[in-house]
Structure formats: structure tokens, C-alpha cells
């Protein structure tokens, strides 16, 4: 399975990529902001996207909206420090399938990935 990790922090991209590999993803691409994410999704089919909220050039929430407006149905999990309930609802309304708040333990992220994809 193929995933896209979108975060402006290289360290966080490595953490997320490791969690994806533990969840069974053999092919993980990375993007440093929302613009790179939208470009990658327009070029490649992914099984899952992990999307940060706050990034330069294009916010993650705006990238989610653009990906959904293009008719893409790939599952998207927002991975962010944004913990307010209104923000969670905003992300879900924009088209995110699930949400995890930083900081998190890698096993919690693996569980969230499996829940989102309906994996056992």
C-alpha cells in the first residue's frame, strides 16, 4: 500500500513514515507543505494521506479541501496540535476521514490508521 505524509517538520515526517511502515505500508512518499501534497495527489494514487494542519505555502486544511474538490476519495487523517473540538469538526467537514492530535504515541497512530482503513 502507498501513503503520503505531509508535514513541514522533517522529524515528524520520519516519525509518521515509521508508523505507516508498522501499519503495513511499504511505499511512503513525503511532502513538506499543502502545495506539494496536492501536486503529489494529482500525480499518484495513494491509499492514505497523513496531513498536518499548519504548514507554509498552503495549510493542510486547504489542501484537504482542494483534494476533495478534485474528486479524490483517498482517506485522509489530520495529524495536528489543533485540539479544539471546532477544529476537529472543521477538518471532518472539509473532508478529512479521521484526526489525531500531536503529541501521540506511535501505537496510537497505527491504531488510528487501521481504524480509518478498516484493517484488523
Please, could you describe this protein's structure?
This protein has 120 residues and is an alpha/beta fold. It has a single domain (2-117), classed as 3-Layer(aba) Sandwich (Rossmann fold), CATH 3.40.50.2300. Helices cover 46% and strands 19% of the residues. The protein contains five helices and five strands. The chain has a five-stranded parallel sheet, with helices on both faces. Helix 1 crosses helix 5. It is globular and about 30 Å long.
Shape type? globular
Q: Biggest sheet: strands side by side, in what order?
A: 2-1-3-4-5
Q: How far is it from the N-terminal to the C-terminal residue, by CA?
A: 15 Å
Q: Per CATH, which architecture?
A: 3-Layer(aba) Sandwich
Specify the number of helices: 5
**What is the radius of gyration?**
13 Å
| Largest sheet features | 5 strands, parallel
The number of distinct structural domains comes to 1
Low-pLDDT residue intervals, each spanning 5 or more residues: none
Amino acid at each position: 500500500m502507498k501513503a503520503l505524509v505531509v508535514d513541514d517538520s522533517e522529524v515528524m515526517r520520519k516519525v509518521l513514515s515509521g508508523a505507516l511502515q508498522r501499519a503495513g505500508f511499504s511505499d511512503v512518499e513525503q511532502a513538506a507543505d499543502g502545495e506539494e501534497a496536492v501536486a503529489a495527489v494529482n500525480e499518484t494514487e495513494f491509499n492514505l494521506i497523513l496531513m498536518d494542519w499548519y504548514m507554509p505555502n498552503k495549510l493542510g486544511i486547504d489542501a484537504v479541501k482542494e483534494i476533495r474538490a478534485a474528486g479524490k476519495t483517498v482517506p485522509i487523517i489530520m495529524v495536528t496540535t489543533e485540539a479544539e473540538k471546532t477544529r476537529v469538526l472543521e477538518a471532518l467537514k472539509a473532508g478529512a476521514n479521521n484526526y489525531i492530535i500531536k503529541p501521540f504515541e506511535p501505537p496510537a497512530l497505527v491504531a488510528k490508521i487501521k481504524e480509518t482503513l478498516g484493517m484488523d
